[in-house]
Amino acid sequence: MQPVDNFAPRVLAWFDEHGRKNLPWQEHRTPYRVWISEIMLQQTQVTTVIPYYQKFMASFPTVEALADAEQDEVLAHWSGLGYYARARNMHKAAKMLVDELDSELPHSVEGVCELPGIGRSTAAAILSISRGVQAAILDGNVKRVLARFHAVPTWPGEKKTENAMWDLAEHYMPSERCGDYTQAMMDLGATLCTRSKPQCLLCPLEEDCQGRLTQDPTQFPIRKPKKAAKPEKSIQLLVLTNPKGQWLLEKRPSVGIWGGLWSLPELAVEESVVLHTEQRFATQVSAVTPLSLFRHTFSHYHLDISPSQIVVSDIQLVGEGDKYQWFNPDEALAQGLPAPVRRILEQLNELGMSVR
Length: 356
Fold this sequence. Notes:
Elements: H1 7-18, H2 31-40, H3 46-59, H4 63-68, H5 71-78, H6 85-100, H7 109-113, H8 120-131, H9 140-149, H10 159-172, H11 178-192, H12 210-213, E1 232-241, E2 247-251, E3 262-263, E4 266-267, H13 273-281, E5 285-290, E6 294-297, E7 302-312, E8 324-327, H14 329-333, H15 339-351
Parallel strand pairs: 1-7
Antiparallel strand pairs: 1-4, 2-3, 2-8, 5-7, 6-7
Helix pairs in contact: 1-11, 2-3, 2-8, 8-11, 9-11
């Protein structure tokens, strides 16, 4: 993988004419604003992130505001974005910045990497875009551009290949306009050098692209060796509804799936909804309405969810602390909820099934 000349100038010239320059986090650019955007953009498309980012920044305009917020409030703003560990780590990092670093992000990649949830590429993106630091990134878009340009014959997830691609990324990183170059490489991968339909004829690197010369640039990056089919799991989720029309939510543990979010009580598919509810919550069930079964897919397994609405007499939550809480529908939907739980409750709310 030999570097070529004039790589960065061609990318920057393309960016000046075609790059994205009006994204919300490009306005009033600060390390804090860029940091929040980079965390949100991990595993998430720009179009999805924009409304979440705008709402988030309206509520938490400074690192101090984020650090002072309750975790529930932060997770509520993240609800629907998925990968909730990002939000929890971001909240922890904000507290560290305020308590230990005078509310300022470190100036080195190594220093930023010491904050929870931030790796080398994300740290470099934050610093190059917000402060003009000469620090190369290697996110998914950049990997795709470099892997195609050099027709890298091995999977980028292999350590040797990844190290070689880091060397290329650092070699091509210019000493000036570092933030523009970082954004340009992201934009090039997101808008032209896309996964399935690259627009090679519009690419500023087309002339020297080894992937294009193979007539099938989409074979790069080489795909990860296939794993076995994702395992499947099944659960029941219970929408317990009291005579006031309130829903019972359960606070998830801070670690693990849906960590720190409010969710619905769950049980195994083979268990009796009525028997379980009456024994677990010392109440009487007056009505059970099965809801539509659906599948929610995580990165590592499929989850088949069987929801039911159960009308119960009031429940005395003795000795449960803050684990369970009754919420009116509007209050419930304002909490940080896992996406499938929000889907269930929104559908019930639209159907007017919160009150019996």
